[in-house]
Amino acid sequence: QVQLVESGGGLVQAGGSLRLSCAASVTIFSFNAMGWYRQAPGKQRELVAGITFTGSSRTNYADSVKGRFTISRDNAKNTVYLQMNSLKPDDTAVYYCQASVLVGPSYWGQGTQVTVSS
């Protein structure tokens, strides 16, 4: 059974940094892409950053985090990271790791809370 376990969330002041980790229970090459989503109270879940594993690896970011967040992977550790710099109060949300496959539903982690104080 595939499991995604997030870690690294917490409370940080505006302008600070956090690094989220998403450890997969299987090789990340079992997936065609992975991403980080977030959901703030009363808002819909939104894609923050994604990375593809097919062909040449590509990344994409929400406009609101471009230049501040970086998604990366460590193949040997089956882990995907989200480095978050220059955090703002608007970044406060539960962050979820997601892994997609070519056929079948995506997998989701349990989420990790990120709170940015002003």
Tell me what the structure shows.
- The chain is mainly beta.
- 0% of the residues lie in helices and 51% in strands.
- Strands 2, 4, 5, 6, 9, 10 and 11 form a seven-stranded mixed sheet that branches.
- The model has no long low-confidence stretch (mean pLDDT 95).
Tally of individual helices: 0
Helical content class: under 10%
Q: Which spans of ≥5 residues are poorly predicted at pLDDT below 50?
A: none
Straight-line N-to-C gap: 40 Å
Order of helices and strands: EEEEEEEEEEE
Largest sheet: 7 strands, mixed
Beta content comes to: over 45%
Structural class: mainly beta
Number of strands: 11
Radius of gyration: 14 Å
Please tell me the overall pLDDT. Answer: 95
Per the principal axes of the C-alpha atoms, what is the gross shape? Answer: globular
Features of this protein?
118 residues; mainly beta; seven-stranded mixed sheet; four-stranded antiparallel sheet; 51% strand
Write the layout of secondary structure elements.
Blueprint: E1 4-7, E2 10-13, E3 18-24, E4 33-39, E5 46-52, E6 59-61, E7 69-74, E8 79-84, E9 93-100, E10 107-108, E11 112-117
Parallel strand pairs: 2-11
Antiparallel strand pairs: 1-3, 3-8, 4-5, 4-9, 5-6, 7-8, 9-10, 9-11
Task: Give a short synopsis of this structure.
This protein is mainly β and 118 residues long. The chain contains no helices and 11 strands.
